[in-house]
Every structure is written in C-alpha cells, then in structure tokens.
Amino acid sequence: MRKSLFYVANSVIVITVIVVVLIFLHIFRLPFIYFNLLGANNSLTHWIGWAGTLYIAFATPAYFLVKHKLVSHLKNAFNVHVIGNLVAVLLVSIHFAHQVTRSVSNYPELGTGVVLYATMIFLVSSGFLQSFSLMPKYAKQLRFIHPAFALTFYTVIVMHIIHGI
Predict the structure, then answer these.
(1) Which of 29, 84, 157, 163, by CA, is between 20 and 30 Å from 73?
(2) 82 to each of 27, 39, 77, 86, how far by Cα in Å?
(3) Helix, strand, or coil here: 11?
(4) What's the pLDDT tens digit per position in 44-60?
(5) How far apart are alpha carbons 137 and 61 in whole angstroms?
C-alpha cells in the first residue's frame, strides 16, 4: 500500500508543479472574480488559498489525534493526511502563483506570504522524506523537523492573517 501511496503522492506533486508553471507562464489563469463569503470579500484565488490553508490547519491536528488516540484508524488517516495535505498544497500554490504573477500596478506585499509558502514547502518536504523513508540516515532529525515546521506554519499563518487585516 505504501508504494501506491508514494505514486499517488508523486502524481499530486507533479500536477502541482505543472499548474504552477502554467500560471507563471500565464497559460492558465483563474478569472478575477470577487466572492463575498461570511462578510469577507475576496477573489476566487484568495478563497482557494483559504481552503487549502484551512484544510492543513485542521487536518494536521486531526491526524495527530488519530495517531495517538485512535490507532486502529491510523492507516486510513495516514493516507488522508498525505494526499489531503498535498491537494491542499496544490490549492495554496494556485493562490501563491496568482499572487506573485500579478501586474506591477496591482502587486501585493509578499512578506508573510513568502515566509508562509516557504514554511509549507519545507513542511511538505520533510513529511514526504519522513513518510516514505527516503533519507533513513536522517530519520531521527526528520521526526523532529517535521512537527517543528508544523508549529512554524501555525505561527506564520496567524501572522499572515493579522498582516492581511
């Protein structure tokens, strides 16, 4: 099962890279449409970024709880954790790519967004290396680094939200 999960995970990563490259090349763009949701008015790409971020923010502690409290469901939870978070990264990547490819006259301030995106990429990379034992020599370090990046992610997302207010 781990082998098929590895191939599905790699497929999601490849799709993410292709979509981001297409956005950077202005071949694929989501329309600039504003949606009002719960009193907040944001663009479609912003809501897509929110969806991905919220998934990561809630699914990660849910996986932690299953891992430590409901061990009988661990295998399914692990698969959902890996694939779900990679799809969430795809959504956040769509948002980020649209932000950094905006016109100069409408370019956003990227400070916390860049840090947040980098943290998310490091979080995913460390999780990928740990999950599939790609660097067994560094397994102990990865068991420390992956949760550390998760905590950093939560800290930076709070700062990113505050910065956007």
Answers:
(1) 157
(2) 29, 32, 9, 6
(3) helix
(4) 888 899 899 999 999 99
(5) 27
Which token pair is 160?
């990113």
Orientation of helix 2-24 relative to helix 74-100, angle to 10°: 10
- Strand, coil or helix: what is 164? helix
Residue 1 has pLDDT above 70, yes or no: no
- Do residues 126 and 149 lie in contact, with contact meaning Cβ atoms separated by under 8 Å? yes
Q: Please count the other Cβ atoms lying within 10 Å of the Cβ belonging to residue 119.
A: 20
3-state secondary structure 27-92: CCCCCCCEEEECCEEEEHHHHHHHHHHHHHHHHHHHHHHHHHHCHHHHHHHHHHHHHHHHHHHHHH
State the distance between the two ends of the chain, measured CA to CA, in whole angstroms.
Answer: 44
| Cβ–Cβ under 8 Å, residues 99 and 26 | no
Nearest in space to 78 (alpha carbons), one of 6, 150, 153? 6
Instruction: Give φ, ψ of 135 to 5 degrees.
Output: -135, 70
Q: Measured in whole angstroms, how far is the alpha carbon of residue 86 from the centre of its chain?
A: 6
Tell me the pTM: 0.88
